[in-house]
Amino acid sequence: MKKSALSLVLAVFTGVTTMASTPVDNEVKQVKTTESTVTWKGYKVTGSHHGTIALKAGSLIFDGDKLTGGEFVVDMPTLVSNDLEGESKGKLERHLKSDDFFGVEAHPTSKLVFSSVKATGKNSYEVTGDLTVKGKTNPVTFDISIYGNKATATMKVDRSLYDVRFGSGSFFDNLGDKTIYDEFDLVVDLVF
Predict the structure, then answer these.
(1) What is the pLDDT of residue 24?
(2) Domain 27-191 has CATH 1.10.10.10
(3) Which of 38, 69, 154, 185 sits most deeply, having the most CB atoms within 10 A of its CB?
(4) Domain extents for the chain?
(5) Which residue stretches of the chain have pLDDT < 50?
């Protein structure tokens, strides 16, 4: 009887220890795409253009309150310019969606998948991820801050890595003041 009672106590204790050391499953928090915004800004020698593009889907992964991963899909046909009006606005948007730039008809989505997340402060992280644009995937590194159910990230993207060549001094000579810089900025405000 003592032997079986001791075995029972050991089994319970071992089970409790095993349960306590089992890691908590990561919690996936879906991004509210209609409340989140992605703002872009592209630069050229003679100025800049800016606008927005919508998220199609997105999620952040947490272990407790610590960010551990994420994945986002961008809806490329929603790309719009906010700094122009009328015919100029339509012309720029059509050009950005054409094969000269993002080839939206053949590539209706772009995707970002986090590959590593490193805490840099209480609510701040450095993220490295795989960004796919026009079917080409390259690593990007950016900062993201989390506050409650909101997150903000800023990112520089080198379009030349994704075969977006139009007006790029990396591919064409003698463009002069028609040069469009390779890097563009993204500012992402997420609600989840």
Answers:
(1) 56
(2) no
(3) 38
(4) 27-191
(5) 1-22
